[in-house]
Amino acid sequence: MALGGNQRGRQSPGQAVAINAVFEQLAAGEKGNWNLSSIGRFPVRVILHIALLDADTVEPRDLQNDRLRDVAKMAIRARIEHQRGTLADLVAVIGLRSTHAKIRHLRPLPRRSSIARRPHPSMRDGLRVTFLGTGTSVGIPVITCECDVCTSDDPRNHRLRASVLLEWEGIDGPTRVLVDTATDFRQQALRSGIDKVDAVMYTHGHADHILGLDELRIFNFVYRKSIPLYADAATGAVLRHVFSYAFDPEAIGVPQLEIETLDDHVSLFGVRVEAIPLGHGRGTTQAFRVGNFAYATDCNRIPDAAAARLQGLDVLVLDSLRQKPHRSHFGLQQALAEVERLQPKKTYLTHLSHDLEHAAVEETLPPHVRVAYDEMVIELPIPDAWRCA
Ligand SMILES: [Zn+2]
Ligand SMILES: [Zn+2]
Ligand SMILES: [Zn+2]
Domains (ranges, CATH) in the chain? Predict the structure, then answer.
């Protein structure tokens, strides 16, 4: 199993603040009259050097002051697509007081076609899991909140609504299966370069897990085909109700979707995906298992029958909302008790609220339990027994 992201040395908190301020300005699209020698305390040449590694796209003579924002955006995109880590990783690279030579290990961007630019899973027979969001229903930062987590400089504390992308080499080629269409799906798709969705698996019908559904229509436009949505009966009913316009056969310009009722397993593009019902307050949520990987968000009860189907895991992703228990989510101690019970080799906690500060919580955890963060990538093999015709 390989973990995305790098673990290079960290820079001082002061540097992190300055660099984050730069990226905030860039993200906000501020042109301004920037001094070409620095933006904040961050040397422009470092941004440019990173961007220049994309030699196919950027000509050095194009780097006029007014193009700085675009160039820096390319740098960010290069980081997203090729570092596959977090902003913290880029900050760490820059924290080395980079010379051109030192940042050379950022590989240049390959020439892209207009579509299908997301690389396939690097392991031919493997499963790749990308965390598109790891936050609870309101996301982090929370609107109006000024707590230490919501105002943190550590990008691992910035969490979009919970969702993962599963990728594998299927019978028809690279396969991308989305787990939930979170409220932030559009932003997640752009950030992670998702250019195709072959199917969606729904965990349950709560707003934070479904409200990005409308964004799927762009894939209908590009690929000219409908997308299957796998949902249990209750979730399917919610989707039909909330997005009634999308299921109106007379409507035009709406997402083209087909709801398939989820049974206890489904064969998707040559791979078996199991759906395992868990308790989520008064309702039910579906955990999904592929090989020795399972994703179990939004749950506060794992019935014995489900626990039996969650044995022998290499990686478990598990709900852990906050320190204290909650009526429909595991609190941290309950999540750890479930880890004891299920004995996965490695567990990543997700669906976190601003009650849990990334680094502080990780310090308290045993090494086989970590806190997931947005854009984290894990890869693991898919055993032959999970392959099907
Ligand atoms: Zn949720
Ligand atoms: Zn907060
Ligand atoms: Zn929920």
Answer: 2-103 (no CATH), 126-386 (3.60.15.10)
